[in-house]
Amino acid sequence: MRSAKISRNTTETHIKLQLSIDGTGSYDIKSGAGFLDHMLELFCRHGGFDLTLRCEGDTYVDSHHTTEDIGIVLGEAFREALGDKRGIARYGSFLLPMDEALILTALDISGRAHFSCDLQIPAEKVGDFDTELVRDFLAAFAGSMGLTLHVKQLAGTNSHHIIEGVFKGLGRALAVGVALDPREEGRIPSTKGLL
User: Fold this and answer.
1) What's the pTM?
2) What are phi and psi of 27, to 5 degrees?
3) Which of 6, 88, 153, 181 is deepest in the core (most CB within 10 A)?
4) In terms of DSSP bridges, do strands 114-118 and 148-155 run parallel, antiparallel, or are they unpaired?
5) In what helix (H) or strand (E) does residue 146 lie, and over which residues does it extend?
């Protein structure tokens, strides 16, 4: 089973995370930021990933450190669980409608971190969550996983729907990319022989 356990302790956050890529979409998430918990639950459910996460962060300041550090640790967990990436499909994309919002997510599990984001989130906050932190999470996740990630908003006016579309779409696209491809027969999906 492709899985990982990661801990990260800084002066700003203490994180423990357990991930199973080949899961059922079950989750037990307590980050200290309710909206982030909800988005990570959607990511797990729609990606079919099992995730247990505990974070104690300096949310009395704001949710920035918590959000970014969880992105880092989650990316590290995927990178560790995938190992040398032998046999994976590698590429994934998903066009996700969420009511009036439409979000395109495309990714390459290339080992080369790149993040491109085109989101127009109208509200500065959803609940007490700063919506600019969506970009911080995605950039941290892509960077630590070694993921090429493009996220583009094609439509949307409701901030909650836009962000929900991002996390659901990321889960769906990543599920495609990490899936074992029978055509690869355990090979590394690159002419370089290394990802």
Assistant:
1) 0.97
2) -155, 155
3) 88
4) parallel
5) none
